[in-house]
């Protein structure tokens, strides 16, 4: 009998289950088999637990992180939660620089682990630099890292956008778990792109086992990206555009050689799919998972994909979104097409 007593929360990360989406598929009239990898079964209910652990332990092995140092990261939420938990378990201080628009649940969970939460709007010069860089979040993040580490040498940024331990974690864990649990029988793998690590690492492993597996990357549609006409759209949390973007705006961890196709999803479509999933399968997932579910619907509806097996990476649970409009069944998802982001910076503290 396998041991059931563990020595640390870090030992509970990974080995998440695959769920056959039977009722969801039946309701949509889909003829492909959909399997959802439920990353909400990680200790902090998100796929980001995997990279949080991998990046911290790699920094320890490399001698870049030592007792007394402060770990820091910029994040839309889930990486911050995972790092806060693991930092607490390992005895490190943690500081997170966080987008003002994240749900209140996320910042409060991070604070519950004893971490320091710093909204972007409170960082001197960040807003001005972000505006001057024409909204280039990747460049703004690099600027923030430089400013902080020059002033505080004992602060160690994990830099998830470019840290190779990020995709490697998925190449060593997420991909092999999917291959094992499907017994190597899958045709399509779908994941959203934030840092690019999940798609790149998992896709790289799956392709190494079977080059014919079709890897699909999900990004936000044009209507869900900031523009001059619509500067603050209701965005899909943690999902970033990469098609048609200049190289400096694309996270270095996104491997363009891995994916075969890109599907763009609007926020209201992601909300609609997440709601349908809750009502048919009894599982709450976040809006990035909703985007993956919507993309999978489109793939499964294609005649050439009838009878094929599609594996979906459902990145996190939905409990951290209950203060948002994601599960507001009284408001049709389609009515959110022109919705703007509601600032919640005053709630973050």
From TrEMBL:
Protein name: cysteine synthase
Organism name: Candidatus Pantoea deserta
Homology family: Belongs to the cysteine synthase/cystathionine beta-synthase family.
Alphabetical list of Gene3D superfamilies matching this protein: 3.40.50.1100
Tryptophan synthase beta chain-like PALP domain span: 9-316
Pathway(s) of this molecule: Amino-acid biosynthesis; L-cysteine biosynthesis; L-cysteine from L-serine: step 2/2
InterPro entries given in the database record: Cys_Synth/Cystath_Beta-Synth, TrpB-like_PALP, TrpB-like_PALP_sf
Matching Pfam families: PALP
Catalyzed chemical reaction(s): O-acetyl-L-serine + hydrogen sulfide = L-cysteine + acetate
GO molecular function: cysteine synthase activity
Key words of the record: Amino-acid biosynthesis, Cysteine biosynthesis, Pyridoxal phosphate, Transferase
EC number annotated for this UniProt entry: 2.5.1.47
